Amino acid sequence: MDHQTTRRPVGDHQQALGALVGPALSRPRRRTHALTALLGEAGRGALPRVVAGDAVAAADLPGFDNSQMDGYAVRAADLTGATPSDPVVLPVVAPVPAGTQAPPLARGTAAPVMTGSPVPADADAVVRIEDAEPPVFPEPGTPATVRFAAPVRPGTFVRRAGSDVAAGDVVVPAGTPLGPAQLGVLVAAGVAEVEVAEPSHVLLVSTGSELVPAGRSLGDAQVHDANGAMLTAALAEVGARVTQRVVPDDPAALRAVLAEAPDDVALVVTSGGVSAGAYEVVRQTLTDAWFGHVAVQPGGPQGLGTIALGKLSGSGPGMDRPESDNSRSDRSRAVPLVAFPGNPVSALVSFELFLRPVLAASTGAAPAHRPRRRAPLAAPLDSPEHLHQVRRARLDADGRVEMVGGPGSHLLAHLAAATLLVHVPPGVAHLEEGDDVDCWEIR
User: Fold this and answer.
1) Is 173 helix (H, G, I), strand (E, B) or coil?
2) Which CATH architecture has domain 372-441?
3) Other C-beta atoms within 10 Å of 431: how many?
4) What angle (nearest 5°) sits at the alpha carbon of residue 259, between those of residues 255 and 261?
5) Euclidean distance between CA atoms 102 and 85, whole angstroms
6) What number of other Cβ atoms are within 10 A of residue 433's Cβ?
7) Hey, how many other C-beta atoms are within 10 angstroms of the C-beta on 109?
8) Is residue 47 scored above 80 in pLDDT?
9) Of 99, 212, 219, 246, which one has the greatest count of Cβ atoms within 10 A?
10) Which CATH number is correct for 64-160, 2.60.40.10, 2.170.190.11, 2.130.10.10, 1.20.210.10?
11) Is 443 exposed, middle or buried (0-12, 13-18, 19+ CB in 10 A)?
C-alpha cells in the first residue's frame, strides 16, 4: 500500500481546518467595557482581549508642554550669542516640580524643571542640567544664578502637548490585542470605555470511559484526564474561553453534552474516539464529519466537520445532518468540530500543528506562528519516510538539538521537558549528527 496516497498531507489538513474554523471565529461577539473593568481583569490575570472598535483619545497626550530632561526652562532668545568665553548669566527663579503649574517665565530668567514637569508659559526650550554651570540645582528659595555657554534652539527637550496623540485621534485601532502598552495609552489618553471582542468560547470534550477528571481518585484501569488540562491551558493561551467536559465511550453521553452546550460556544474540540476501533465514540456518533489519517507522527487520526449544538428532538448518530424545522429546536445551531486523537502527545502536537495558528490569528492574543529556527542535530535521527514526523527536543549547551524521549505518543513527561518541536518532513528517512532541522519554540 502506498502510504502517501492514503493519508492526507499535513498542509492539506491545515488548509481544511483553517477554511472551516477561521470564518466561524472571524465575527466574535462585541461588547463595550469600562476601561476600569478591563484593568481589573488584567490585574487578575484574565484572558487577553482584542479591541473591536477604534478607541479614540479623549485628551491630548501629553496633555501639556513638559520637560524631557532635568534642567532649566528658558527663553531661547535669552541665550543668543552665549559662548564658553562669554556665557549668558541668568537669575534662577522658583523651581517647577512635577504636578505643579508654574507662572509664566519672565524674560531673562531660568526656571529649574524636572523630567515631566510642565514647561512654564513663555519658555520655549530646556537646557539639560549637565550643560549648565554649576551642573546642580540651587536650594529652593536661595538666590542664585546659572551660566549658559551655548545658545539653544526653540523646542529643545520640550515635549509639546498632543505630540504623541491629539484628542479625537484613534489611539488603539480595532483589531489590536490589548496588552500592557495599549492599556497604558488608553488610560493616559483619558479613554473611559473600550469595545472589545469577547474571547471565543470553545467546548472541549475529552472522551474515554477510562478517564477521570483531575483531582478525583482513580479506579481500576482508569487514568486522569491529562488532555483536558493540556488543551484547556493551550486554548486559554491563545485567547479562548473554555468549557471542559469528560464523557465515557457512550454516544448518548456525548449527544447530551452537545445538547447542553452553552449558547455562545463557537467551536467544539474533542480528544479521543477518532480511530477505527470498537469504542471510537466521536467517530461513531458524529457520522457526517470527516475522519481519516493525516500523514503525521504523532497525531495521525483526525476528524473535522460541522455539528449541531443545542436541544434536538431527533438525535440520530449524525448530529450535523440537515434536519427539517420540526426536528430541530430554535436553540440548535451548527458550529465547527475539530477532533484530535486521544494519546496526550498526539493531542497537543495536533493542537500546535492545526488549531493553534487559526485561533491565534482570529483572537490576536498570541502570534499566529511559534518562533522558528534551524539548528544542528546533536545525534543522528531516523524518521518514517512517508510521514511528517514531529519530535520533542531542547537545545544543549552547544546550541544543538537534543531529542527528549522517543517518538511515542504517550511520553507526556518528555513533552513537558521539551522546549522545541522538531519537524522532519516526508521523504526524509535519516538525518546525521550536525544536519540542520526546522524547530518551533514552544516555551
Assistant:
1) coil
2) Beta Barrel (2.40)
3) 19
4) 115
5) 32
6) 11
7) 21
8) no
9) 246
10) 2.170.190.11
11) exposed
The class (CATH top level) of 3-25+199-363 is: alpha beta
Residue with cell 488549531: 355
> Which grid cell sits at 258?
452537545
Cell of 329: 429546536
Task: Give the pLDDT confidence of 100-129 residue by residue, as tens digits.
Answer: 888 999 999 999 999 999 999 999 999 999
The 10s digit of each residue's pLDDT in 388-419 is: 999 999 999 999 999 998 887 777 888 899 99
Position 3 pLDDT exceeds 70 = no
Query: Which amino acid, one-letter code, is at 150?
Result: A
Mean predicted confidence (pLDDT) in 275-295: 90
DSSP 207-249: E-TTEE-TTSPP-TT-EE-HHHHHHHHHHHHTT-EEEEEEE-S
How many Å separate Cα 3 from the centre of its chain?
37
Please calculate the CA angle 368-419-372 and round it to the nearest 5 degrees: 40
Amino acid symbol at 183: L
**3-25+199-363 and 372-441 share one fold:** no
Strands (E), 84-154: 88-91, 111-113, 125-128, 132-133, 145-148
Query: What are the extents of the domains in the chain?
Result: 3-25+199-363, 30-59+176-196, 64-160, 372-441
Length of the chain: 443
Tell me how far CA of residue 253 lies from CA of 65, 207, 259, 369, in angstroms: 66, 10, 10, 36
**pTM flag (> 0.85):** no
Provide the mean pLDDT of the chain. Answer: 90
Q: Output the nine-digit C-alpha cell for 387.
A: 510521514
pLDDT of residue 428 exceeding 90: yes
Nearest to 67 by CA among 178, 156, 166: 156
DSSP state of 118: B
Over 70: is that where the pLDDT of 316 sits? Answer: no
